Amino acid sequence: MLPGFFTRVFAVLVGREGRSLHLKAAGGATIVLVLVMLAGSWAVVTAEQGARHANLTSYPKALWWSIETATTVGYGDFFPVTPWGRVVGAVVMVVGITTYGMVTAALATWFVGREDRRRGRAHQLREETVQALHARFDQLERLLTGERGGDR
Q1: What is the spatial distance between Cα 72 and Cα 4, in angstroms, rounded to a whole number?
Q2: Whole-angstrom Cα distance, residue 69 to residue 129?
Q3: What is the distance between the alpha carbons of residues 44 and 65, in angstroms, rounded to a whole number?
Q4: Which fold has domain 2-113?
Q5: pLDDT higher than 60, residue 147
Q6: Cβ 63 vs Cβ 41: under 8 Å
Q7: What is the pTM of this model?
Q8: C-alpha span between 64 and 71 (Å, rounded)
Q9: For residue range 27-38, what is the model confidence (pLDDT) as tens digits?
């Protein structure tokens, strides 16, 4: 059941045919972020293993640290103390910031596109209404002119 779930999540994030490029990119970046957080958690535990004053000593702690680092929350409860641990932290930060920026941009583009399409439909409807009114007025003028011409 679990592999099927991940397959569906992957398909939703990057696989649909008709989706725009910015949504596919944001979905791909989200997948990369999750992989970087998972791998970064393992890498930071490995880098910090045996280091003096290390507090990232287990995978669950490191996973929590990678989530708060990627989201730039950074409570300060866990942090790397070795140079390699800090390199891993920098990678997690950059990927996290980039991903959240891409997702935010994709959502903003989607909202703007919807509004543009709505405005385009409203403009088209106004144009059609104006054309219909002009046709009615022309028809009324012809009727009035025809009645007057018949009375004279």
Answers
A1: 31
A2: 55
A3: 10
A4: Helix Hairpins (1.10.287)
A5: yes
A6: yes
A7: 0.63
A8: 11
A9: 888 888 899 999
State how far the Cα of 46 lies from the Cα of 38, in Å rounded to an integer.
Answer: 13
Domain ranges of the chain: 2-113
Asked whether the beta carbons of 48 and 56 are under 8 A apart, the reply is yes
In angstroms, rounded to a whole number, what is the distance separating the alpha carbons of residues 145 and 139?
10
Q: Determine the Cα–Cα distance for residues 28 and 31; give it in Å rounded to an integer.
A: 5
Total number of residues shown for the chain: 152
Please report the sign of the dihedral spanned by the C-alpha atoms of residue 44, residue 47, residue 50, residue 55.
Answer: negative
> For tokens 């007025």, what's the residue?
137
pLDDT averaged over the chain? Answer: 83
Q: Determine how many CB atoms are found less than 10 A away from the CB of residue 87.
A: 14
Contact 53, 40 (CB under 8 A): no
As a whole number, mean pLDDT of residues 125-132 equals 83
Residue 143: per-residue pLDDT: 85
For residues 64-73, give the mean pLDDT: 91
DSSP-based three-state secondary structure for 91: helix
DSSP letter for 15, please: I
116 vs 9: which has the higher pLDDT: 116
Cα radius of gyration (the chain): 30
